[in-house]
Amino acid sequence: MFLHPGLNNRQPNLVNTVFPPPSSLDTVKLPQTFTAANLEKIAGIRIVWTNNLADHLLLRDDDTKVMLFHHVSALYLQRYPSRMPLRDLADETVRTIALLIPPSLGAASPWFKLQQQEHCLDSEAGICDRLNSSERQIDKFHYWRERLVLLKRTYDDAEPKSLSQLWWDDRKKTQWFTFWVAVLVFVMTVFFGVIQSVASIVQAWASVKSLKASD
Hints:
The chain is mainly alpha-helical. It has eight helices and three strands; from the N terminus they run ααβββαααααα. A three-stranded mixed beta sheet has the order 1-3-2.
């Protein structure tokens, strides 16, 4: 079952019970780079797909995994007027998916296509309408606000643990540029040092050979 069994027209108040209003109004920025792909590549937060809407955006295992609900087709069915108690929740859930899995030129991104093949995901999750800058404001989220804030802060606080994460992590562009310039300078220093050493060895060998030939 994709949705919580109590979320139906006979129990409209259960929507606010299962998904209570945010207890705080903490704010964060949600830039275009805040995506599921970057959660994995930069922060090392693994995406775990779930069929349970109540688990959507939950962090697990010491904040190393985040649950994502992918059944967008099921959410679209809740948008009809006869399902008013669920419409706002469904619309906002779709927007969180659009935020984290933005399409690429109107089609699913290469990252999502690989995920879909591996996990048999709902294809609609990869082609949600891309959010504009106004729609990405945290104030536009009600049901999922607290989980989005916690996920974004976990992402911001994550430190790269591998060279690949260091390469992709341009959240702090000045530090990223300074680090890789330093790496380039170090590599070039070692490279030219090796060349100089080899040249010195060759020169010494040539001198010894010349002396032997003169004898």
